Amino acid sequence: MITEVDLKHLKRCVELAETALEKGDEPFGSVLVSSDGEVLAEDHNHVAGGDHTQHPEFALARWAAENLTPDERSGATVYTSGEHCPMCAAAHGWVGLGRIVYASSSEQLAEWLGELGVAPSRVRNLSIQEVIRDAEVDGPVPELAEQVRELQRKFHSRAGR
Ligand SMILES: Nc1nc2[nH]cnc2c(=O)[nH]1
Fold first, then answer.
1. Ligand 1 within 6 A of 112 CB?
2. Which of 1, 64, 130, 141 is deepest in the core (most CB within 10 A)?
3. What is the secondary structure of 99-117 as a DSSP string?
4. So where are the chain's domains?
């Protein structure tokens, strides 16, 4: 179930995705929140430099591994504008983070990119549950997913893409 608190954090993720787009990166943003509701870290996509592993969910998993105890990690929630890719889901699982809440799903993203004529990436489009056993996952949220869709449309309609 998605709560008002979840929506607040997801809206921040969409803002971070907008920031990424403004900087020429792919429009994705994520926030890590502790079990008592404190925002611990946030990031957006940083692939414009050419390193396509620079996803915010991956950065947050590594931040959590360096800065949180195993108990703190399992109690923490990752909010994200788009469902984790398999690389980031694996990192999330390996470091033992908890719940994931996303605004838009990977299935939605694949559908939107198909409509925009964007070729599928080499990395397969797996759901988080296909990568992490017993994952606790909520999403998508239709009104926020529409905003993410618009950011993707803007990103892929830029000159040179
Ligand atoms: N969730 C997510 N999916 C992606 N696909 C390509 N880049 C990203 C990213 O930064 N986050």
1. no
2. 64
3. -EEEEE-HHHHHHHHHHTT
4. 4-45+52-160
For residues 26 and 53, is the Cβ–Cβ distance under 8 A? no
**Alpha carbon of 34 to ligand 1 centroid (Å):** 22
Q: Which CATH superfamily is domain 4-45+52-160 in?
A: Cytidine Deaminase, domain 2 (3.40.140.10)
Global pTM value: 0.97
Q: How far is CA 40 from the centre of its chain?
A: 16
Report which ligand 1 atom has the smallest distance to the Cα of 81.
1
Asked whether residue 159 carries a pLDDT value surpassing 70, the answer given is no
Token pair, residue 96, equals: 């033992």
Residue nearest to atom 5 of ligand 1 (CA): 85
Tell me what ipTM this predicted complex has: 0.97
Residue 68 is given by DSSP the state S
Cβ–ligand 1 distance for 82 under 6 Å, the answer: yes
Mutational pocket test of ligand 1: of 78, 88, 131, the residue with most ligand atoms within 8 Å of the beta carbon:
88
Give the C-alpha distances (Å, rounded to integers) separating 117 from 18, 36, 153, 156: 22, 43, 11, 9
